[in-house]
Amino acid sequence: MTFINDKLLADLYYPDYWNRNPTSWGSISDWDMYYINQIPGCSKRQAHRTLALELKVLLQHLQDTSCGYSKAAALKRALSWEVCYGGGSHRFHHSMRCGKCVMVVDLIGSIISCNCDKDPANLILWNNHCSNLATLAIEDRVNKREIQIFAVKKEILQYKSERVLVDHSSEIEEIVTSATPAIRLSSADLQQDYNEEEEKPIKELQDKEVEEVENEEDEFTFQDKELFTQRQSMKDDKKWKLSTGTYVEDVLYNLGIKCRYYNLVHSFIIDSEDKFVQSGFTSDELTEIRETKSMYESPQIDNELLGYIDSFAKDSTKDIRKALYSSYPRLCENYNPLVDFPYEHVRTTVSDWVRLLEMEPNPLTITQDLPESWFRINVWRTVDIAFSDLPFVFFVGGEKAGLATKDRKNCGRTLSNIGPMQRKAIGKKGDGYVQSFGSRSIDWAASEAGSKWKGEKGTKIIKECSLALPKVCIVLIRFLELNLIELLTPRIYVGANLIKTNLDCLRGYVCRYMRQVPLEIYADVKQFNRTLDALVSIIYAKLEILNTMKIINNTTNSSDNLKRWKNLPKKTEEFDVPDCHPTPKKRRVANLQ
Question: Most CB atoms closer than 10 Å: which of 35, 40, 254, 275?
Fold first, then answer.
């Protein structure tokens, strides 16, 4: 039997729910159960918004005297605010915002409020639904199911948007202004009570501990393994072949297939200190990987500059100050910033560090309580000013998006075809990049920072130093097109500690990642000579970056120019270093009790 004509059914989104006896339409909870079955990942707000749209169509086409109209009107009243005054009424519909309350202000100023959320059946329904969604999202992260976890937000946006009295304050004021004082007082009390009740759930939800599930902890799924197929296009004659006959690329591929989680081997980066990587090679092979030298000579610091640094290796701040204020030929009236800046850099850095040692209390003794920004300004300012003698080259810090990582993320963008054009992505935000600016801006090196040093095996060090930073640097190598050249010099700053790392591409398709021992800015002035090790490491890093710039920007002779110009119309050969494996976005999962 048909209770609604076909034309009206065609205007409804869910005609199968309404094409039955109106007495069977049930309550809002019945509709909610039906909607959840239709759209498993829905929220309560979505269900009630859809119901409001359906009811609007029904009330426009059904006869006022019909049973269906009466039932639809009853459901609509549960999705409306109703304020009655005198013989008439003023109604505010909020199906998209509230969807649960009916409020009446009568002639004598009494207020009657009815909240359908107090219906135990409806509460249990949506609480169970949110819990099920959260459970599914946690369990099915491996399958990357696109289910929105409403239990995480717990409808914070809904609570914030339920400002019905505020949104319609002018309409309510018009009614209440002409009413009795009792009504005006009751309306004011109602506004205050509503605000208090509104803020309570928001505060409770914001106080919930939310655990951030980092990208690195997402499991490596079957889909990701399908992406891990770059080895198939690698040619044996170009792979890194060790003296034992082992191909490094093949070993990394076999290790990557075994992984349940993301690892550097998926980007064909070999970290010889990783025990998992060590399991795939013999001790002799690991020694060969570590000791293989680059085709380029490592830069050396001038002996005169090293001697000037050594002049500050004192065991008291007074003696260090004396060395600072003593005259030095390169820092007198004949100072040339293009030639003598390294000496100015050393003196400025030593002055900054001595100031910290002289402060009371010594801030280097309370580093666990200081934020990351404090260390960047007071301890590691030496990095910010290290490139001041180079035109158009700066160290850009403070969660800056990388240029090379931006290019990598957007390399697959095309004109709209079957689907729309992809939205342009931003690069990975890092704590610092060495960038040169001009007609084409370039990233030359990257760094990560933290505020609390928790040892070499702290979570921050392991995740940033052993995965995130080397993956950023391999992108820099690819987009600089450093064909088999030396290195990039990323760094990790955690509190008053520094770890310098190197990433180079020596042979084949593999990049080698190595890290040095941590260096510290000591709180004890008697160890200031060891503090200067960090300054020397920063100067070495600068020289290595300059060496990379020199190789990339190397001017060629006329014969090389002619050869390049003749081949200019031809497409250049693709770069041999594999791209880093895509990393999933961070997810937030609530700790459900």
Answer: 35
